[in-house]
Every structure is written in C-alpha cells, then in structure tokens.
Amino acid sequence: MSNFLASASYKLAAHLPHQLPPDTGREVAFAGRSNAGKSSALNALCNQHRLAKTSKTPGRTQQLVYFEVVPDRYLVDLPGYGYAKVPLGLKAHWQEFINGFFQNRLSLVGLVVVMDIRHPLREFDLKMLDFARSRGMPAHCLLTKADKLSRGAQGNTLLAVRKDLGSIASVQLFSSETKLGIDEARAVVTKWLNG
Fold first, then answer.
1. CATH number of 20's domain
2. Which of 20, 62, 111, 113 is the most buried if burial means most Cβ atoms within 10 Å?
3. Does the predicted model carry a pTM greater than 0.70?
4. Containing domain of residue 146, as a range?
C-alpha cells in the first residue's frame, strides 16, 4: 500500500496568525503534551526520520509547524503543552494563538491527540478534544509509547480510554519504536486529508 503522507515536507513555522498559509485546502493538526511522542509519531506516519524534530527536551516545538503533503494538504505540528519551561507571556501567546486557530481555521478538518499511554487523558488532552467537539471536527487519539507496557496493560488502558471518551474520539495503540498502529493511524489521517 503506498503511503500518501510519505511526500510530506517542511513548509513553514508560524508564530503569529498572519504567518499561516492561506485558509484553503485541508489540514490535520497534531497536539500532545510535551514529550508524548508527537514528533516521533509524525515521522513514523510519513516514514521519514527527520521530518519533525524530535528532542529529549520537552517543549521544543514552539510554533505551529506546517508540513505540506501535496499542495493544499497539510499536517500541522502544534506546540507541546504541559510542562514546557517557557515564560508565562509566551505560554499566554500560544494559548491565544491556538484558541484562535481552532475557532477560526476553516481548513482544519481533523485533530490527532498524542498521549503517552502511561499518562492518558490529562487536562490539556481533554481541552484539545473539547476544541474538536465544539467544532464538530473528528478527533483521533494515539496512545504512544505502547511498547513500554505489556500487551495486557496496553489492552486494559485502551479499553479504559475508549470507555472514558465514548463517541468523542476514536483511540488506538501506537508505538513509533515497534511500528504498532502506524498503518491504522495513517489511514485515518489520509482519509481526513483527502476528504
């Protein structure tokens, strides 16, 4: 099966609304707590090693980073939320920018929420899912780093998160290390981008 996302390449990084590309086409945003494995997930889905910059330091992504798959089809890497050590002023700026992005961006057609399987459904994860729900936009959760748990623990966490989320979002196991769930996640994102 060919990978539609494999052609993704860096397009731009936006720190202010006017730096965003024209609001046409289709975009899928990736959100997640700092160090949840968001950049690794993006790289795995696109089958590229260095598309999104990965780091052991939380909070490295400090802008909305756009990757163009084909013209007018984008993957958007949002700043990691949670414990990134950034000044309060910058944190407030991100919050306002991202709130506006979710409320006003017509091109945004789906949200992938990346959560470390060992710490799912934290406050900010739920806030992101609320953004999607308020817009009537589909959301899909990746329980990353699934390789850190036994198969039984993986299954139990998946069932618990599915139960908590109900119909708010779909959810799956994911590991960029062992390639668990990559095809499933790729199919969801590709479907959204192709409309």
1. 3.40.50.300
2. 113
3. yes
4. 4-194
